[in-house]
């Protein structure tokens, strides 16, 4: 009998990965391709959607070829994606109207402030579970409809974008929709991604007419919302297309919910933190949408076909891994792998604190005008102190969220499952255990974002039977227990809060 597998497209902020998993949740094949980061103005971040799609095809083809796996051996495809990043495309030609506006982009901060001044943010939060912020998709789509200069291959003109959108000729989607459209031809999003648009009512499980009107988003341009694991499938790949096979596309997740699922956090109270460009701390709250009083987001965790939605609390930290990339950009390190050795070369940061608020601060602060800050430097400060401070900032920001999580959900976080590229750094994992005073558990398969979307697709096509089978697949690689004295950890955290205060409300209109 021919071996079968499940494939997962993991479309992230800096690149696209395709992974193939077997029945045991083990990686059979993997390929990765970076895409260009576009910064047309300070605070603006864009991606080329066409480049993302071309890279997606390339990594699928490469991974299958490297592993000697035929496309026909794929039982299903799953998709996971950078959330909130927004694409508008032409229904008829399939070509993007404008570059994708990335979740990190801050160009609509002024619009959010206008909503705050008008007293509309409480209503937004009540319906969507989200803190009104430029991070989410609604103001990005609104901006494109108002300001986009369509890509030259398009027949659309800026003046008629809204009219065409109202007629359904322009389609809106987050990256999952863009990939599903290109894979199947269908205009579909999945419920966790919909919950990140600031247009979707997470209690009614429907696009909200009042919010659509507020942001001027025509209902006709929105995708159909489907479960994360969909027994009816989102569609099939074209057998005459690049894969040469008709494969069901049956599961999708926003990347952080995918990691929650891949870490098998299926029960209320189970939590994970994913360390990527940013870090995202999610705790399952079951069928209850817990409201936060401490700056966290209430979001949809996952949904299987025919079952109730499972909710989660989320702390969104905008910059963690990107702080390490910044160290490279300014030539303080040659490679991210160097950070562990450099950080260990000094006993402490010497009182230096780095707040990596390069695109503002997310949970629990939510200050779009905060900016990156280094405090506490003396003439004796050297690069090792700054590198160590950058790593410690990741741990401190995670504690910010952990404390808010415990207060909102009335839980005590004693164990935290972690994943993402940064968790390969043992110094960071130990520092994280020390600072949040909890055990850090690193899994054997740390690409849990891709694994989560594979699980969603595989469950839909009965490749895996149930959640218990997935739990049995999960194995710990290593646990890190706290070693630092609690009083010392608390004192360091107190000084971190002092540093954060100095980063807040810094940016002004016209700053360059």
From TrEMBL:
<dbReference type="GO" id="GO:0019563">
    <property type="term" value="P:glycerol catabolic process"/>
</dbReference>
<keyword id="KW-0808">Transferase</keyword>
<feature type="binding site">
    <location>
        <position position="277"/>
    </location>
    <ligand>
        <name>ATP</name>
    </ligand>
</feature>
<feature type="binding site">
    <location>
        <position position="321"/>
    </location>
    <ligand>
        <name>ATP</name>
    </ligand>
</feature>
<feature type="binding site">
    <location>
        <position position="83"/>
    </location>
    <ligand>
        <name>sn-glycerol 3-phosphate</name>
    </ligand>
</feature>
<feature type="binding site">
    <location>
        <position position="14"/>
    </location>
    <ligand>
        <name>ATP</name>
    </ligand>
</feature>
<dbReference type="InterPro" id="IPR000577">
    <property type="entry name" value="Carb_kinase_FGGY"/>
</dbReference>
<dbReference type="Pfam" id="PF02782">
    <property type="entry name" value="FGGY_C"/>
</dbReference>
<feature type="domain" description="Carbohydrate kinase FGGY C-terminal">
    <location>
        <begin position="272"/>
        <end position="460"/>
    </location>
</feature>
<feature type="binding site">
    <location>
        <position position="135"/>
    </location>
    <ligand>
        <name>sn-glycerol 3-phosphate</name>
    </ligand>
</feature>
<feature type="binding site">
    <location>
        <position position="17"/>
    </location>
    <ligand>
        <name>ADP</name>
    </ligand>
</feature>
<comment type="similarity">
    <text>Belongs to the FGGY kinase family.</text>
</comment>
<feature type="binding site">
    <location>
        <position position="255"/>
    </location>
    <ligand>
        <name>glycerol</name>
    </ligand>
</feature>
<feature type="binding site">
    <location>
        <position position="277"/>
    </location>
    <ligand>
        <name>ADP</name>
    </ligand>
</feature>
<feature type="binding site">
    <location>
        <position position="13"/>
    </location>
    <ligand>
        <name>ATP</name>
    </ligand>
</feature>
<feature type="binding site">
    <location>
        <position position="425"/>
    </location>
    <ligand>
        <name>ADP</name>
    </ligand>
</feature>
<keyword id="KW-0547">Nucleotide-binding</keyword>
<feature type="binding site">
    <location>
        <position position="421"/>
    </location>
    <ligand>
        <name>ADP</name>
    </ligand>
</feature>
<dbReference type="InterPro" id="IPR018483">
    <property type="entry name" value="Carb_kinase_FGGY_CS"/>
</dbReference>
<feature type="binding site">
    <location>
        <position position="256"/>
    </location>
    <ligand>
        <name>glycerol</name>
    </ligand>
</feature>
<feature type="binding site">
    <location>
        <position position="13"/>
    </location>
    <ligand>
        <name>sn-glycerol 3-phosphate</name>
    </ligand>
</feature>
<feature type="binding site">
    <location>
        <position position="83"/>
    </location>
    <ligand>
        <name>glycerol</name>
    </ligand>
</feature>
<comment type="function">
    <text>Key enzyme in the regulation of glycerol uptake and metabolism. Catalyzes the phosphorylation of glycerol to yield sn-glycerol 3-phosphate.</text>
</comment>
<feature type="binding site">
    <location>
        <position position="421"/>
    </location>
    <ligand>
        <name>ATP</name>
    </ligand>
</feature>
<protein>
    <recommendedName>
        <fullName>Glycerol kinase</fullName>
        <ecNumber>2.7.1.30</ecNumber>
    </recommendedName>
</protein>
<feature type="binding site">
    <location>
        <position position="84"/>
    </location>
    <ligand>
        <name>sn-glycerol 3-phosphate</name>
    </ligand>
</feature>
<feature type="binding site">
    <location>
        <position position="255"/>
    </location>
    <ligand>
        <name>sn-glycerol 3-phosphate</name>
    </ligand>
</feature>
<dbReference type="InterPro" id="IPR005999">
    <property type="entry name" value="Glycerol_kin"/>
</dbReference>
<dbReference type="GO" id="GO:0004370">
    <property type="term" value="F:glycerol kinase activity"/>
</dbReference>
<dbReference type="InterPro" id="IPR018484">
    <property type="entry name" value="FGGY_N"/>
</dbReference>
<feature type="binding site">
    <location>
        <position position="321"/>
    </location>
    <ligand>
        <name>ADP</name>
    </ligand>
</feature>
<keyword id="KW-0067">ATP-binding</keyword>
<dbReference type="GO" id="GO:0005524">
    <property type="term" value="F:ATP binding"/>
</dbReference>
<dbReference type="InterPro" id="IPR043129">
    <property type="entry name" value="ATPase_NBD"/>
</dbReference>
<feature type="binding site">
    <location>
        <position position="13"/>
    </location>
    <ligand>
        <name>ADP</name>
    </ligand>
</feature>
<dbReference type="InterPro" id="IPR018485">
    <property type="entry name" value="FGGY_C"/>
</dbReference>
<keyword id="KW-0418">Kinase</keyword>
<dbReference type="GO" id="GO:0006072">
    <property type="term" value="P:glycerol-3-phosphate metabolic process"/>
</dbReference>
<feature type="binding site">
    <location>
        <position position="84"/>
    </location>
    <ligand>
        <name>glycerol</name>
    </ligand>
</feature>
<keyword id="KW-0319">Glycerol metabolism</keyword>
<dbReference type="Pfam" id="PF00370">
    <property type="entry name" value="FGGY_N"/>
</dbReference>
<dbReference type="GO" id="GO:0005829">
    <property type="term" value="C:cytosol"/>
</dbReference>
């Amino acid at each position: 009998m021919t071996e079968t597998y499940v494939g997962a497209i993991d479309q992230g902020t800096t690149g696209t990965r395709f992974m193939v998993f077997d029945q045991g949740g083990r990686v059979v094949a993997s390929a990765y391709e970076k895409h260009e980061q576009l910064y047309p103005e300070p605070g603006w971040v864009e991606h080329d959607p066409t480049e993302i799609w071309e890279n997606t095809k390339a990594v699928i083809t490469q991974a299958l070829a490297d592993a000697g796996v035929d496309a026909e051996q794929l039982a299903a495809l799953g998709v996971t994606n950078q959330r909130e990043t927004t694409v508008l495309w032409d229904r008829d030609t399939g070509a993007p109207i404008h570059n994708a506006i990335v979740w990190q982009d801050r160009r609509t901060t002024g619009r959010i402030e206008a909503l705050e001044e008008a007293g509309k943010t409480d209503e937004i939060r009540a319906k969507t579970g989200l803190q009104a912020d430029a991070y989410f998709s609604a103001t990005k789509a609104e901006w494109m409809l108002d300001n986009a200069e369509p890509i030259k291959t398009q027949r659309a003109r800026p003046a008629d974008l809204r009219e065409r959108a109202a007629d359904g000729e322009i389609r809106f989607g987050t990256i999952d929709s863009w990939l599903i459209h290109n894979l199947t031809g269908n205009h579909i999003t999945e419920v966790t991604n919909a919950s990140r648009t600031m247009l979707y009512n997470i209690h009614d499980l429907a696009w909200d007419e009042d919010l659509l009107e507020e942001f001027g988003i025509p209902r006709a341009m929105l995708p159909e919302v489907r479960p994360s694991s969909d027994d009816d499938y989102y569609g099939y790949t074209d057998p005459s297309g690049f894969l040469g096979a008709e494969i069901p596309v049956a599961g999708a997740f926003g990347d952080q919910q995918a990691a929650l699922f891949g870490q098998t956090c299926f029960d209320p109270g189970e939590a994970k933190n994913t360390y990527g460009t940013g870090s995202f701390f999610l705790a399952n709250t079951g069928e209850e949408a817990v409201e936060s009083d401490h700056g966290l987001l209430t979001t949809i965790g996952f949904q299987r076909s025919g079952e109730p939605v499972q909710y989660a609390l989320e702390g969104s930290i905008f910059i963690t891994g990107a702080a390490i990339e910044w160290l490279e950009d300014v030539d303080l390190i040659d490679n991210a792998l160097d950070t562990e050795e450099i950080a260990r070369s000094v006993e402490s940061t010497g009182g230096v604190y780095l707040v990596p608020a390069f695109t503002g601060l997310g949970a629990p602060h939510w200050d779009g005008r905060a900016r990156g800050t280094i405090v506490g430097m003396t003439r004796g400060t050297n690069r090792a102190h700054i590198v160590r401070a950058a790593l410690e900032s990741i741990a401190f920001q995670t504690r910010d969220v952990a404390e808010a999580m415990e207060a909102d959900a009335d839980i005590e976080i004693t164990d935290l499952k972690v994943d993402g590229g940064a968790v390969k750094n043992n110094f960071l994992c130990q520092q994280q255990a020390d600072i949040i005073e909890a055990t850090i558990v690193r899994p054997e398969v740390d690409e849990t974002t891709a694994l989560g979307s594979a699980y969603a697709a595989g469950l839909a096509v009965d490749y895996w039977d149930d959640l218990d089978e997935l739990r049995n697949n999960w194995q710990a690689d290593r646990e890190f227990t706290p070693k630092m004295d609690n009083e010392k950890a608390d004192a360091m955290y107190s000084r971190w809060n002092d540093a954060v205060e100095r980063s807040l409300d810094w940016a002004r209109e016209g700053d360059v």
